[in-house]
């Protein structure tokens, strides 16, 4: 079992020990909020662990249509099959959308689960389900905002159960938090019942791109009036030392901080400082390691590499994910789709064809190629999903859209898996003739989350502990059978 996590402060007062910690952080030129954002609660079981891999979870906010992507129904009626046509992949018998030609060429590296199902059709519910791996809504769930009773997101679970490397957190989220244009912060992205101190490490690299859509092809899926901010903006956090703080001066500050901590340990030997030690190590690693800093600077990559991924939010996000995996971050969640961009109630065919599929096809294919060339594909599991699928029947909301689309549909969606030991050219599960419900081998979000945790080497009996020392088990189902080779 994982040992209990360090206890958290129970009262909003600041004691002498916390003042010393805050002062020590100040010596480094870092704020408490900086360190809190980098917190990684790491633990492990005493049992032998399988080889640890990495995971890149690509989340398509809004809901990818299975009919237009990975589970086409060309023989169905016009009101079901839509405008797109299937094309053959490199694997005989597997077809996907004509607008995903690069992925079609790489089918030896990926597998599809066409039968993932849950019972909710609302965006907030679906996000919570597919970002936490729990099918049922928690007590006190509020679709308008995150609640402390929410289930913890994948990144928080991984941070609590996987040891980080190079003094970095073991999980990260890029390039931004999901916040709807209305200002609604979408549930499911935070630590919930684990406590805010275990909220995931979010690397906000798209803060200056204020509009919605798939930069550089920004668009509003409801075609409301707005003005783009200009060129696509993707900036890594400023990880340089302040101009006045040279590496030599940083070293002197760290020596002084050691003196402060030695005195603190003498006075407070029983105090638990392990968590703050990890936070300090993370901050130092970010400031002093050239290899780590480089992982955040996608524009320092060769131009041909950036072009292969696509010089846009999709491409740069996946390029940064690859770099973070290389420097030791175990799981990277990549949020693709600002303001629920994949929510294709209307104009589904032009939006997918012109705005969403091209950067996704290009970036995911480049990620697969890049990982393979670097010898990392077999040890990196790529997962791509949204909060739900889309309705079998094409519909029309003439009030908002010029052309037809599909509505929300939690009953089934297709989930894409690549690398990480996946049996390439495999399809698990199927849907009925209209793509509305699983026909065989239905899978739940709990199976998907178990697959992710298993790939990361998390023990099947692993648990994280609350501040009340209550165990919460990580696994709630078995990994998807037949997916891994």
TrEMBL record:
PROSITE patterns from the UniProt entry: TAT
InterPro entries named among the record's database cross-references: Alkaline_phosphatase_core_sf, DUF1501, TAT_signal
Tree of life domain: Bacteria
Source organism phylogeny: Bacteria, Pseudomonadati, Planctomycetota, Planctomycetia, Planctomycetales
Signal peptide location: none
UniProt-recorded name of the protein: DUF1501 domain-containing protein
């Amino acid at each position: 079992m994982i040992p209990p996590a360090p206890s958290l402060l129970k009262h909003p007062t600041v004691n002498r020990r916390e003042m010393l910690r805050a002062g020590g952080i100040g010596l480094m030129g870092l704020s408490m909020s900086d360190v809190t954002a980098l917190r990684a609660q790491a633990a492990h079981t005493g049992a032998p662990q399988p080889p640890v891999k990495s995971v890149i979870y690509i989340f398509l906010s809004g809901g990818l249509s299975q009919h237009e992507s990975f589970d086409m129904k060309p023989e169905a009626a016009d009101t079901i099959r839509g405008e797109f046509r299937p094309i053959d992949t490199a694997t005989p018998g597997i077809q996907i959308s004509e607008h995903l030609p690069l992925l079609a060429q790489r089918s030896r590296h990926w597998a599809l689960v066409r039968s993932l199902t849950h019972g909710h059709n609302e965006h907030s519910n679906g996000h919570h389900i597919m970002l936490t791996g729990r099918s049922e809504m928690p007590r006190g769930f509020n679709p308008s905002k995150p609640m402390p009773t929410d289930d913890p997101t994948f990144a928080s679970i991984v941070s609590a159960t996987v040891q980080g490397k190079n003094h970095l957190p073991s999980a990260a989220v890029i390039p931004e938090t999901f916040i709807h244009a209305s200002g609604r912060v979408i549930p499911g992205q935070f630590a919930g019942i684990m406590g805010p101190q275990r909220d995931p490490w979010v690397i906000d690299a798209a803060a200056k791109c204020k509009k919605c859509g798939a930069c550089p092809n920004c668009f509003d899926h409801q075609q409301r009036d707005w003005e783009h901010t200009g060129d696509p903006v993707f900036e890594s956090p400023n990880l340089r030392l302040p101009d006045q703080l040279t590496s030599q001066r940083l070293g002197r500050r760290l020596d002084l901080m050691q003196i402060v901590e030695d005195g603190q340990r003498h006075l407070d030997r029983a105090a638990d400082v392990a968590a703050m030690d990890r936070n300090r190590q993370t901050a130092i690693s970010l400031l002093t390691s050239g290899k780590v800093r480089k992982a955040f600077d996608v524009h320092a990559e060769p131009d041909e590499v950036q072009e292969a991924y696509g010089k846009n939010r999709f491409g740069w996000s996946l390029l940064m994910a690859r770099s973070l995996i290389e420097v030791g971050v175990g799981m990277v969640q990549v949020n693709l789709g600002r303001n629920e961009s994949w929510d294709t109630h209307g104009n589904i065919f032009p939006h997918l064809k012109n705005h969403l599929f091209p950067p996704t096809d290009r970036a995911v294919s480049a990620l697969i190629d890049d990982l393979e060339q670097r010898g990392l594909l077999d040890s990196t599991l790529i997962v791509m999903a949204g909060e739900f699928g889309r309705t079998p029947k094409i519909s029309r909301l003439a009030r908002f859209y010029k052309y037809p689309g599909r509505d929300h549909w939690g009953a089934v969606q297709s989930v894409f898996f690549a690398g990480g030991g996946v049996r390439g050219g495999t399809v698990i599960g199927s849907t009925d003739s209209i793509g509305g419900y699983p026909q065989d081998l239905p899978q739940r979000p709990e199976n998907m989350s178990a697959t992710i945790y298993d790939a990361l080497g998390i023990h099947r009996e692993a648990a994280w502990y609350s501040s009340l020392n209550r165990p919460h088990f990580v696994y709630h189902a078995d990994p998807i059978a037949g997916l891994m080779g």
